């Protein structure tokens, strides 16, 4: 029996394999939404940002043009770990047309999604997913870059997005 409407019972059942298939899918969707926006990562507080734990000291957010140049036609790979030490990975390909495609995998299973990405005049990198992550709405980040490593800090958080880190890769690594 699936306890979808009784979240306490779902949380108490830590044996993921013991859930019926439809419950496993629901749990994977829930975990995916919690763990992914663009990429799965640990959360940070404003104190972390002030102390330089989220972004190396001295880095300034990229401008709108710098983000467009860095992301257009390129991939972003992320390998992150949550507070429980569980891994979550994702690769996103930013098409020149403004479309974005993602494949993610981790302790919760696998996920693919697609949507659109853009950059605001204020320098916010934003993605809006059309598949499983569509319920999150438009998620935006300030982007900091140190060589090929990028730091994505939520700029319209609303509790939906977490701090992310990743590596920029030239070209389309999603389909390779």
Compose a concise summary of this entry.
With 176 residues, the protein is of the alpha+beta class. The chain is built from 4 helices and 8 strands, in the order ααααββββββββ.
Structure in words:
The protein has 176 residues and is α+β, with helices and mostly antiparallel strands. The protein has a single domain, classed as Lipocalin. The chain has 4 helices and 8 strands. The chain has helices at residues 7-12, 21-35, 46-50, 64-71, and strands spanning 75-81, 87-94, 99-106, 109-119, 124-129, 139-146, 149-154, 164-169. An 8-stranded antiparallel barrel has the order 1-2-3-4-5-6-7-8. It is globular, with a radius of gyration of 17 Å.
SSE blueprint:
Layout: H1 7-12, H2 21-35, H3 46-50, H4 64-71, E1 75-81, E2 87-94, E3 99-106, E4 109-119, E5 124-129, E6 139-146, E7 149-154, E8 164-169
Antiparallel strand pairs: 1-2, 1-8, 2-3, 3-4, 4-5, 5-6, 6-7, 7-8
Q: Helicity range of the residues?
A: 10-25%
Count of helices?
Answer: 4
- Derived from helix and strand composition plus strand pairing, the structural class reads alpha+beta
From the alpha carbons, calculate the radius of gyration and give it in angstroms.
Answer: 17 Å
The tally of strands reads 8
Task: Determine the oligomeric state from the structure.
Answer: single chain
Q: How large a portion of the residues is in β-strands, by DSSP E?
A: 25-35%
Q: What is the C-level CATH assignment?
A: Mainly Beta
The H-and-E topology, N to C, reads as HHHHEEEEEEEE
Please state the overall shape, judged from the principal axes of the Cα atoms: globular
Uncertain regions spanning at least 5 consecutive residues: 1-19, 23-53
Mean pLDDT: 74
């Amino acid at each position: 029996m699936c306890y979808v409407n009784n979240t306490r019972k779902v949380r108490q059942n830590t044996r993921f394999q013991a859930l019926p298939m439809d419950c496993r899918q629901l749990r994977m969707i829930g975990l995916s939404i919690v763990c992914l926006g663009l990429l799965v990562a640990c959360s940070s507080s404003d104190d972390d940002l002030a102390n330089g734990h989220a972004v190396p000291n001295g880095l300034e957010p990229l401008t709108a043009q710098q983000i467009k140049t860095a992301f257009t036609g390129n991939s972003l790979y992320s390998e992150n770990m949550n507070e429980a030490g569980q891994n979550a990975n994702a690769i996103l390909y930013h098409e020149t047309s403004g479309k974005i495609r993602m494949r993610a995998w981790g302790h919760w299973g696998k996920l693919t999604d697609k949507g659109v990405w853009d950059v605001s005049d204020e320098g916010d990198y934003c993605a809006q997913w059309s598949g499983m992550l569509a319920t999150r709405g438009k998620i935006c980040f300030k982007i900091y870059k140190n060589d090929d490593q990028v730091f994505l800090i939520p700029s319209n958080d609303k509790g939906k997005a977490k701090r992310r880190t990743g590596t920029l890769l030239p070209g389309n690594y999603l389909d390779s």
